[in-house]
Amino acid sequence: MFKFEELRNIHIELTTKCNARCGNCPRNFFGSKKHSWIKDTEYTISEFKKYFSHEVLSQVKFILLCGSYGDPAACSDLEEIIDYLMSYDLEVQINSNMSLRSKESWERIGKSLNEKSQIVLSIDGLEDTNHLYRRGTRWNKIEENVQALRGTKANVVWECLLFSHNIDQKEAINKKSKEWGVPSVLFKYPMGFKVDDNGVRYMPLLDSNGRVESLLYPHNQDVSRVYDLKLKLNINRIEHIQSGEYEPKEYKIKESNQEHSIECRSLKENEVYIDGNKNVYPCCFFGSYDNPEQFDQQLLDYLHSIDRSKISLKNSTLREILNNQTYSQVESSWSCHSYSDGKLKICERYCSKKEGEVFHLYEKE
Fold first, then answer.
1. pTM confidence score
2. How far apart are CA 293 and CA 76, in angstroms?
3. What CA–CA distance (Å, rounded) separates 260 from 336?
4. What are phi and psi of 219, to 5 degrees?
5. C or N terminus of the chain, fewer CB within 10 Å?
6. Is the separation of the CB atoms in 76 and 102 below 8 Å?
7. Listing from the earlier edge strand, what are the strands of the sheet with 155-161?
8. Is residue 250 assigned to a domain?
9. Nearest by Cα to 66 from 232, 249, 285
10. Residues 6+ apart with CB under 8 A from 76
């Protein structure tokens, strides 16, 4: 990790609150109920100014407001926080499903942002498809809020996840973006699909009783092969881990077949991730996997081996956290030959040059 003086970008989760129940979100159980161990938290404007003081903001260039669990629009003091960040003339990016807050609030936010800042619309289709993944969002509210941004200084970008159910809507989505006054659409490939014994990739969406309500598929999945998958999953059931407690356990992980060099985006951009509970992580993937319901036991063991008080803004300043080099083992793990030797699987999964998922998310032009 880098030192505090080298910090340039900060990714901040303003709140763990959200109105949506997206299928791959770690906040909920496959689009169903919220995990019981997640507590609704948010930064107040006074807390934000305390943790992100002049010492911090005077040296950074870019702030990303996007959460692992929460939508920044669910933060009560979002408008005041934007005003504060704009007083430092920073580049700020807000990612939101746009189904929260009033149109008046979004107009105010759009007018407050400077010309180098942007709002990213996380909308995955049109009126008949967006809700299939972004469960709990309302299309009429989305349209109202997006159109409130017209005439403001905010740069607006539509970021759309592609599935089998909306891949044929690309032309219509581009047309809708022009109607909204949004100049560009970025089509993106989602992560989080499971794979069955026949190689079919799928994402289950559950009802409140834990039964499979529907299935989503990648944009290139042959859906003619999956007619009995929903029935099979309901017979076997997808169990919900209830305890919410970390338990060290024996585990086996499939070793990497070949050595892949890691190109860490956070290290390259001198960026850290700070979650809604005020914990500092090397990146958002560490933050979103730091919970008992994820299945990366290697990462859980690593995170629980460090002194947790040393990564919390409630106990230490951001300068102290970065300069105490708590995460030095992360970078050193990249030179290990295998997971058993200490190479972190999560780093190879997301940031290996050859197979890292963050390098293959966006559709090529």
1. 0.91
2. 28
3. 10
4. -60, -25
5. C
6. no
7. 184-188, 155-161, 118-122, 91-96, 62-65, 9-12, 271-274, 280-281
8. no
9. 285
10. 42, 44
Per the structure, the complete domain to which residue 66 belongs is given by 4-240+266-327
**Nearest residue to 127 via CA among 179, 62, 61:** 179
Give the chain's domain count: 1
26 phi-psi bin (left φ>0, alpha ψ -120 to 50, beta other): alpha
Question: pLDDT for 127-164, tens place per residue?
Answer: 999 999 999 999 999 999 999 999 898 899 999 999 99
Q: How far is CA 234 from the centre of its chain?
A: 28
**9-12 vs 62-65, strand pairing mode:** parallel
pLDDT band for position 288 (cuts 50, 70, 90)? confident
Q: Give the angle 63-36-321 at the CA atoms, nearest 5°.
A: 35
The amino acid at residue 134 is R
The size of the chain, in residues, is: 365
Residue 360 resides in a domain: no
User: Sign of torsion, CA 190 196 200 203?
Assistant: negative
Q: Is residue 365 part of a domain?
A: no
CA dihedral 329, 335, 338, 340 (to 10 degrees): -30
User: What is the Cα–Cα distance from 278 to 301, expressed in whole angstroms?
Assistant: 20
Rounded Cα distance, 74 and 298, in Å:
32
CA gap 222, 164 in Å, rounded: 9
Helix-then-strand count for the chain, H and E: 14, 11
Q: In this structure, is residue 126 part of a structural domain?
A: yes
CB 226 within 8 A of CB 217: yes
Whether 358 and 350 have beta carbons less than 8 Å apart is answered as yes
Q: How many CB atoms lie within 10 A of CB 343?
A: 21
Identity of residue 174: N
Asked whether the beta carbons of 65 and 74 are under 8 A apart, the reply is no
Say which residue, 129 or 244, is predicted with more confidence: 129
Q: DSSP assignment, residue 222?
A: -
| Angstrom distance (rounded) from CA 308 to CA 40 | 20
Residue 5 tokens, joined? 């003086």
Q: Give pLDDT tens digits for 257-272.
A: 446 688 899 999 999 9
